[in-house]
Design a protein that fits this description.
This protein is mostly helical. The protein has helices at residues 8-16, 22-25, 33-47, 50-66, 72-110, 116-140, 148-169. α4 packs antiparallel against α5 and α6 (116-140) packs antiparallel against α7.
């Protein structure tokens, strides 16, 4: 079956299949690799449902925006709550992405160097996901750039970006 004909879940399952990942292939040379693989699987389980949650919460915010049943302060309050809820999944995505980037650093430093580029790519993709998610948090929480959730998302994105650079430098 062609790659683009597969569902995302099938693709993720295939990538995570035993022996197909850089972590799995280095298990004999790196005793901690099984624990690292378990952490990666846990992160996958944590992150996978967040895309759906993000879509659902954002759709709910859009519906609240279009709802003309409330007016004035009540409407503003309802909209604020809807957008605050819509900010939560991207914040969780940023948290998971920062954790993925940190885990990729461990793999880049300790794993088989033949798979160093895979670890760096994972860290770079995680950093991009964290940055994108931080942007969504900021957009959904337009009331205040000083909102702690906005600042947390920005810190997570910065942390993931630093981790990606650490992963890249680990080979040198």
């Amino acid at each position: 079956m062609a790659l683009l004909d597969r569902s995302l879940r099938e693709f993720l399952d295939d990538v995570a299949a035993r022996g197909r990942t850089p972590i799995a292939r280095t298990s004999t040379a790196w005793p901690e690799s099984r624990g690292i693989a378990a952490q990666a699987e846990s992160l996958r389980d944590r992150a996978a449902p967040l895309a759906q949650a993000d879509a659902e919460e954002y759709e709910a915010a859009m519906q609240a925006r279009e709802d003309e049943g409330e007016a004035g302060e009540r409407r503003d309050f309802a909209l604020g709550r809807a957008y605050a809820r819509a900010a939560e999944p991207p914040l969780q995505i940023a948290r998971a992405a920062a954790d993925v980037a940190e885990l990729a650093v461990v793999v880049a430093r300790n794993g088989d160097q033949a798979f160093h580029a895979d670890a760096v790519t994972a860290a770079l993709l995680a950093a991009a996901a964290a940055s994108s998610a931080a942007e969504l948090v900021g957009v959904n929480l337009t009331a205040s750039a000083r909102d702690e959730r906005v600042r947390e998302a920005e810190r997570l994105a910065e942390s993931a970006a630093r981790a990606a650079e650490e992963a890249r430098a680990a080979r040198e």
